[in-house]
Amino acid sequence: MNAQTDAALLEDDQASAETVEEQDGPPSEDATSEKNANPPTLDINFLALDGSPIAKMGVAIRWEGGELLARTDADGAIPPIEAPPGDTLSIAVQRFDGSYKKIGECCMPSSDGVLTAVSPNIVVETTTEKHEGKAGNAEERIPKPEQGDLGDLSAASKESEPNETAQPAGEAETKRAETAKPAPADNDKHAQPPKPAPKPKAQPKAPEIKAKQQADKPPQHISGKEEVKPKLEKGRDENGNPLAVITQKAIDWWNSWRMPTFNLWGTPASSAKGGTVPATPVKVDAEMVKKVEALLAFAREQTEYLYTEGTAGVLASMGKGSFKHAKKEKESETPKGLCYTYVKVALSRCKIVSGILADNKTSTAQSEADHYSMQDSASKAGPALIAKGFWEVTKEVPDLRWAAAGDIIVYTWSEATWNKEKKRKNNNYPNHGHIDIRSYTNYISDHIPKSGHPNWTRYNVIGIYRKIYDVEPVWRIKAFLRCLRERECTEEADDAKRYFLLNTAVPGTSGRRFSDDKKHPWAAIYESSAFDNDKSSAGAYQFKHDTWKDLLEKNIVCIPEGGKKFDKMAQDRLAVALMGENPWKGNNGENSALSDIRRGDIDSAINKLKNTWSCLPGAGEDRGLSKNKFMEIYNKYYEQAKRGLI
């Protein structure tokens, strides 16, 4: 049995990161008693492989010091489990003879959670037959694979739409034969009786016409349908043995033929690390961009849904067409501590992964505890992503602001955040972290942060993973940065040397160059009377000392311990970070200049940044630079960025 686990991962919005306990000091004894009176619960439900709930099944859940014996209800659920956090839960199901079979174990979460256990079997209704009998051909009624079974990921076109007025060839041929008139009689010859119309040939059954799924829209056809049970036909095989076969193909929301399951078995191809590859090969082209847009559109849409049934439960309802969630169940910017669940659902539903993220062990050597942790905590998602065909690009990307649209970002809680969570829960509380999908303008998980980005002080980025992606936002960033460097440092033609340029020599030194890039060149005299922030502009983007200091101290840009804080990489990161900060916060990040640049609205970005960089058109030191001229320069560097030259 495959257990898909979705424990509630505690993560708060930036505006409400501090809890009442943290604001008011240590909890009182009454508060502690009240907290202990409401221990965490774990909801468990059981589904067959086709997503149908398994009802009236005996279940035994045991842990040290307790047990629960129950029968599943019509939804396949049992009463919530209340056990000490961290205890191992043993899960067993009842056989027909009354004995119990252990199917797995899980760890009792420290917060309310959901576990969906998926059986490797499906239940069908049929009757028994005698074993011996006449030879038959029941195997021939089993559906055969066809080229179109992998699904339709391209937008519908007029040429591909069926012609509603077209007639089958056989029918048209018959009609022509029936209406044909005999030739006029020859006066010199007796009229010959007309030959009977030829009997039309039997025509093959017309293939079923499927409504094409548009790739540039989120997958549809997941709700409002009546559940279709597998249709069985009985017969005998060539040896005369009884055989029951499912005769129709089960079509999912992408028009893919799948056994009526959650797509758990993937495709025939598999990656070297035990994961699966996309069912349809993809290239970094317009087709891939459509897939990225479809993923982001659904991920954004589902931030208004309130999932309570776990990943497998959500996907099962989609597969059966019984998905009942609707928009406005919650506010898009409201987190529910279920970032991992929402990302898993988006990746499975949009067919970025086959099956469910973390459904199987990454290798035979992975322990049960490690596998459970990978299913339970977003911070452990890296190996699961790699097993599903993603590759890690963390070292290739300066930071998460530079991630391509479609990239998956994995975080741990910061040490301070984790200590707060352990204080609220217990000392063994795991570092669940966070996971989200980078969009063109913001970051999407179970919510879209009001600020447009995760709380910089709450998380540490530990991995950026890529499978389908649009890198154009990064080209735009690089082109805009090159324009800034050129206009801020017009006296220096060598772009590499611009990173070491000073507006004013640091007091006590001569010359307008610096060589030590471990920190801002004016930091050495920050506490002296000679310090003047207005004269401290330095580097390729002419950062003043206090701006540099503020970005680092607020953790808006995090430099690893021992890392250089004003080298080329740091200066590029600081400039991009400044584009995404005040005064354009709010509206889920859509208003920031960085978002403008990433989506290609350069004119809007210039208007927002001209008070930050005075070299931009319309600013005080633009030297007559018009927007048209700026765009001419920008387009030149954009083309260079596309070719990897900058």
From TrEMBL:
Residues 127-147, 207-239 have a biased composition (Basic and acidic residues). It comes from the Bacteria. Residues 1-40, 126-241 are annotated as: Disordered. InterPro entries: Lysozyme-like_dom_sf. Residues 9-24 have a biased composition (Acidic residues). Signal peptide: none annotated. This is Uncharacterized protein. It comes from Dechloromonas denitrificans.
